[in-house]
């Protein structure tokens, strides 16, 4: 069973720099591209970033480009999202996701940015 558990969120002031983590289990983590997706209250889910299976390739949504950085540690089966220069509009529940499999999203972590 695929399990993805995101953590590291909380209440952060604008401009803050938290790092989210996602612990993966139930599949061979190193074989899959991984993504972060977020969902703000009352809005549709928004793709944030993707990293290739080996970690050599990354992509970002325009809204976070230059501020967020995705990375992974395949030895630890863990995905990360370093968030810098946070804005109130970054407030959302953040989920990690295996490839394009929306069903793989586990429990997300709430990030609330105060102005």
Characterise the protein shown here.
With 115 residues, this protein is an all-beta fold. It has no helices and ten strands. The strands form two sheets. It has a six-stranded mixed beta sheet, with no helix packed on it. A four-stranded antiparallel beta sheet has the order 1-3-8-7, with no helix packed on it. A hairpin with a 6-residue loop joins strand 4 and strand 5 (46-51).
* Topology, number of strands: 10
- How many helical stretches? 0
**Globular, elongated, flat, extended or rod-shaped: what is the shape?**
globular
Assembly annotation: single chain
Order of helices and strands: EEEEEEEEEE
- Tell me the span between the first and last alpha carbons: 39 Å
| Major sheet details | 6 strands, mixed
Low-confidence segments? none
Question: Averaged pLDDT, please?
Answer: 97
- Strand percentage: over 45%
Q: Kindly name the structural category.
A: mainly beta
Radius of gyration: 13 Å
Helical proportion? Answer: under 10%
| Order of strands, widest sheet | 2-10-9-4-5-6
List the SSEs and their pairings.
Blueprint: E1 3-7, E2 10-13, E3 19-25, E4 34-39, E5 46-51, E6 58-60, E7 68-73, E8 78-83, E9 92-98, E10 109-114
Parallel strand pairs: 2-10
Antiparallel strand pairs: 1-3, 3-8, 4-5, 4-9, 5-6, 7-8, 9-10
Give short descriptive properties of this protein.
mainly beta; four-stranded antiparallel beta sheet
